[in-house]
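Support request from a user on the community tier.

User writes: "When I paste my structure tokens into the form, the page sometimes reloads and wipes my input. The last time it worked, I copied everything first. Here is what I submitted, just in case something in the input itself triggers the reload:"
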């Protein structure tokens, strides 16, 4: 079983490296892997949560942000000229090369902002992506990154400090408004991220979106990618598009057109004045943990790679 998996991974990785058209052999091998994984009932986080290093070979995001894994992730350096990765013990400072490049680029922009030496980078992906033992429904394909709201005032934190330092919350009234910790620099950094064509979406608490809607000047098109979501008051979450030629990567449908400001205001209104519960509401059945059989077959090759 090992040999076909390694051959398939080499083919997938080779494909990813050149990101060209799909060779017939790869199609056949991934079909075999799809057949194998269909009967694999292991809980996927119990597989991917314990893999300490990236898979060998080229890089490829495989599957969807919340149902996938990542071949050939690379590690964001623990410290760079304009960033530090936080909570190193989690070993989640990994991502596709496009994500690592993006984080470094955004950190350079952040360092141009008054009071910001760069970025403190939270969870990205595990070495081979996939579901995590704790936290995060997504972050599985190496294209998601959490960025701390705390403005870095120094970039020489020890690993112990990176375990113990906390970010700051930037909301009040359960996400309905920004608090005094929110600054124009936060807006500038989120705007820079949302204006980057590599970015698909940014998740942040509703009050921050409304704040940016109310203060944005000039071009407002970047607001489209900034989406209100639960939590995301100590960090914001950047999600990249599938890179060009990433055959096995599944993009999320784009946000609806427009700046999304009315929608964000509705979120805020519902926080301030919660609507009465719907008497007909029935909670959906729990789907349980993500299993290997929920992932693309190629993830078997990623999990089994040297
Ligand atoms: Zn996140």
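"...and here is what came back when it finally went through:"
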């Amino acid at each position: 079983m090992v040999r076909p998996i390694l051959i398939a991974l080499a083919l997938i990785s080779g494909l990813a490296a050149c990101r060209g058209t799909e060779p017939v052999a790869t199609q056949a091998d991934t079909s075999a892997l799809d057949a194998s994984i269909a009967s694999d009932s292991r809980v996927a986080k119990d597989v991917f949560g314990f893999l300490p290093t990236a898979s060998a070979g080229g890089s490829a995001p495989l599957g969807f942000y919340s149902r996938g894994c990542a071949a050939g992730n690379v590690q964001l350096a623990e410290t760079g000229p304009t960033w530090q990765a936080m909570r190193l013990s989690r070993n989640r400072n990994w991502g596709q090369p496009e994500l690592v490049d993006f984080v470094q680029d955004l950190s350079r922009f952040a360092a141009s902002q008054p009071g910001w030496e760069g970025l403190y980078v939270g969870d990205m992906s595990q070495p081979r992506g996939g579901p995590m033992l704790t936290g995060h429904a997504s972050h599985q394909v190496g294209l998601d990154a959490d960025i701390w709201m705390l403005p870095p005032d120094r970039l020489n934190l020890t690993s112990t400090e990176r375990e113990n330092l906390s970010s700051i919350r930037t909301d009040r009234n359960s996400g309905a408004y920004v608090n005094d910790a929110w600054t124009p620099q936060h807006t500038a950094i989120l705007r820079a991220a949302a204006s980057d064509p590599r970015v698909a979406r940014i998740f942040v608490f509703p009050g921050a979106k409304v704040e940016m809607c109310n203060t944005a000047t000039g071009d407002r098109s970047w607001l489209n990618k900034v989406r209100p979501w639960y939590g995301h008051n100590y960090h914001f979450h950047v999600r990249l598009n599938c890179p060009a030629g990433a055959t096995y990567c599944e993009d999320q449908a784009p946000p609806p057109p427009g700046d999304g400001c009315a929608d964000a205001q509705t979120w805020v209104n519902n926080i301030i004045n919660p609507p009465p519960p719907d008497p007909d509401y029935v909670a959906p059945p729990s789907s349980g943990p993500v299993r290997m059989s929920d992932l693309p077959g190629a993830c078997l090759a990623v999990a089994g790679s040297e």
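Agent notes: The reload is a front-end session timeout and is unrelated to the input. The domain at 2-275+289-304 is CATH 3.30.1380.10 (Muramoyl-pentapeptide Carboxypeptidase; domain 2). The pocket of zinc ion is lined by residues 136, 139, 144, 146, 237 (CB under 6 Å). Escalated to web team.
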